[in-house]
């Protein structure tokens, strides 16, 4: 109603939402929110009691599965404390999820994977605004881990038996100020170049959309300089 002007009143919005299958509202703390108009919509015949029951049923089924209506002693979630956060078990599961979700678009001449046994004496360059900036590595709504658990690409690659050099080229995702000499110097002397690019929440988040999918600022230029 407010942003897209699809509806003109809260009542109309409640009816449209219910018809679309929505059963939960993020109300921003308003006392008179959209779904407070459901009784009026029901009384006016805009929705039926059966529809209301159909919307409520999965909502409360989920709440019951979460144990919200059980005594705390019966709810396994109530026993969780900060010791479960970033525990070795959960960190290992996160690592497994990351490994299994990688998407490899092209692997010319079998360049990947890099094997530790092949790296002694090799020179690696890791470049780009995402190479060693922990702040930009986490997407919208992502919790930020404790610094000791954050491995930037540079920090991770430096654990390998190789000579690792680093050049950001630009120090934030918008990449408005770019040092070509810095990137060319690091990449030109390397056997393997890892280029770390992207957008991050500085460029796109919820309610901060982009008109295209191109790399921001001078990032494409940085990529071309690194691989030429």
UniProtKB/TrEMBL annotation:
<dbReference type="GO" id="GO:0031222">
    <property type="term" value="P:arabinan catabolic process"/>
</dbReference>
<feature type="domain" description="Glycoside hydrolase family 3 C-terminal">
    <location>
        <begin position="103"/>
        <end position="226"/>
    </location>
</feature>
<dbReference type="GO" id="GO:0045493">
    <property type="term" value="P:xylan catabolic process"/>
</dbReference>
<keyword id="KW-0378">Hydrolase</keyword>
<keyword id="KW-0326">Glycosidase</keyword>
<dbReference type="InterPro" id="IPR017853">
    <property type="entry name" value="GH"/>
</dbReference>
<dbReference type="InterPro" id="IPR036881">
    <property type="entry name" value="Glyco_hydro_3_C_sf"/>
</dbReference>
<dbReference type="GO" id="GO:0046556">
    <property type="term" value="F:alpha-L-arabinofuranosidase activity"/>
</dbReference>
<dbReference type="GO" id="GO:0009044">
    <property type="term" value="F:xylan 1,4-beta-xylosidase activity"/>
</dbReference>
<dbReference type="InterPro" id="IPR036962">
    <property type="entry name" value="Glyco_hydro_3_N_sf"/>
</dbReference>
<protein>
    <submittedName>
        <fullName>XYL2 arabinofuranosidase</fullName>
    </submittedName>
</protein>
<dbReference type="InterPro" id="IPR044993">
    <property type="entry name" value="BXL"/>
</dbReference>
<dbReference type="InterPro" id="IPR002772">
    <property type="entry name" value="Glyco_hydro_3_C"/>
</dbReference>
<dbReference type="Pfam" id="PF01915">
    <property type="entry name" value="Glyco_hydro_3_C"/>
</dbReference>
């Amino acid at each position: 109603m407010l942003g897209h002007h699809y509806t003109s009143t809260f009542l109309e919005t409640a009816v449209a939402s219910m018809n679309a299958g929505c059963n939960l509202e993020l109300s921003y703390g308003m006392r008179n929110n959209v779904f407070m108009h459901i009784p009026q919509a029901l009384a006016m015949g805009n929705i039926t009691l059966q529809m209301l029951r159909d919307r409520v049923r999965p909502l409360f089924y989920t709440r019951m599965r979460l144990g919200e209506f059980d005594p705390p002693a019966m709810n396994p979630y109530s026993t969780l404390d900060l010791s479960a956060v970033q525990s070795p078990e959960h960190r290992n599961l996160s690592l497994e999820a990351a490994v299994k979700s990688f998407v490899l678009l092209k692997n010319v001449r079998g360049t990947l994977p890099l094997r530790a046994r092949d790296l002694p004496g090799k020179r690696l360059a890791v470049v780009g605004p995402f190479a060693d900036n922990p702040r930009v590595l986490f997407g919208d709504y992502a919790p930020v881990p404790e610094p000791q658990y954050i491995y930037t690409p540079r920090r991770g690659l430096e654990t390998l038996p190789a000579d690792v050099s680093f050049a950001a080229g630009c120090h934030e995702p918008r990449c408005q100020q770019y040092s070509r000499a810095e990137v060319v110097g690091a990449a030109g002397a390397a056997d393997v170049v890892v280029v770390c690019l992207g957008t991050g929440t500085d460029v796109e988040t919820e309610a901060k959309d982009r008109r295209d999918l191109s790399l921001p600022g001078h990032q494409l230029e940085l990529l071309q300089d690194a691989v030429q």
